[in-house]
Amino acid sequence: MSAIGILSEYKMSKTNGRVKILKELLGTDIALSERELQMRLEGICDRATIYRTLKALSQKGVIHKIATEGTVAKFVIKKTPEDHIHFKCTDCGKVRCMTGVVPGNIELPKGFIKKESNYLIIGICDVCAKNL
Amino acid sequence: MSAIGILSEYKMSKTNGRVKILKELLGTDIALSERELQMRLEGICDRATIYRTLKALSQKGVIHKIATEGTVAKFVIKKTPEDHIHFKCTDCGKVRCMTGVVPGNIELPKGFIKKESNYLIIGICDVCAKNL
DNA sequence: GTATTTTTGCAACACTGTCGCAAAAAATGA
DNA sequence: TCATTTTTTGCGACAGTGTTGCAAAAATAC
């Protein structure tokens, strides 16, 4: 799906900033923070706009907000609707979707209702592991 | 293990603040943020001390730092060394360890090295679900 | 093309987490 | 127990994240 296509589908105004933000997110498999987006979109839009766009896209389920260690949240396009795992490399700092790695079906105790999940594994990624 | 016992085991000075912080953490199964600890320890110790203590205890593996959605980190005593799942209720906001609920063994792709994990399920807890 | 609605940029703000440094408290050891 | 050394605390300052109100600007609707 294209940036414009996504905005249409969710009935969001097609503003320059939103299209550019979505294009960045669509063009990478690495989760980006607001900061990282800001650097890639230097001068194109304001911090506040990025935050507002990320919030809106999260709420509509287009992107996934990943709570990593530390303070900053990172965001990736949701490619699969099902649960999946994110991996954070402590060496390069990158956060990726681990497509293909599916967590076993988790049974919650009675009475608990699941809405969404956030599985993060922290370690060293394949690229950084080679250079150790 | 008692607060003092833990501090002894890890060769940490037994200061008033640390003992009180540990007692709070030992006395609940709900993950607490620095903020929540501060309110419970009104006037006993400074923000900076709480942060420093939480950091030290995390590094020694006594407590688990949970990155929840939003900005604040929450902390719980590690009861089991193995991976386990945390549950955050969107209604009451409480974060709990789901002891007993074990994630299936997750196989990472070749080359990835796992250090630690952070599994968070977001939803409605049993208590809040009853009152819906 | 104009009117209406939505979004933006800006500035201000609250909050989290960190740090340096002098003062205070805890550990050490006779 | 008391003096010395080591560690920790509290304070203030700070950088960064994320949010918000509001007027101006842009997008949509007609």
Helix content of chain A: 25-40%
Q: What is the overall number of helices of chain A?
A: 5
Count all strands of chain A and give the number: 6
The total tally of domains of chain A equals 2
Look at the structure and give the mean pLDDT of chain A: 90
What strand line-up does the widest sheet of chain A have?
1-3-2
CATH class of the largest domain in chain A: Mainly Alpha
Looking at the structure, what is the overall shape of chain A? globular
Largest interface: A-B, 40 and 40 residues
- Determine the strand fraction of chain A and express it as a percent band: 25-35%
CATH topology of the largest domain in chain A: Arc Repressor Mutant, subunit A
Q: What is the terminal-to-terminal distance of chain A?
A: 38 Å
In the predicted model, the low-confidence regions of chain A spanning at least 5 consecutive residues are none
CATH homologous superfamily descriptor of the largest domain in chain A: Winged helix-like DNA-binding domain superfamily/Winged helix DNA-binding domain
Q: What are the secondary-structure elements of chain A, in order, as H or E?
A: HHEHHEEEEEH
Structural class given helices, strands, pairing of chain A?
A: alpha+beta
Largest β-sheet summary of chain A:
3 strands, antiparallel
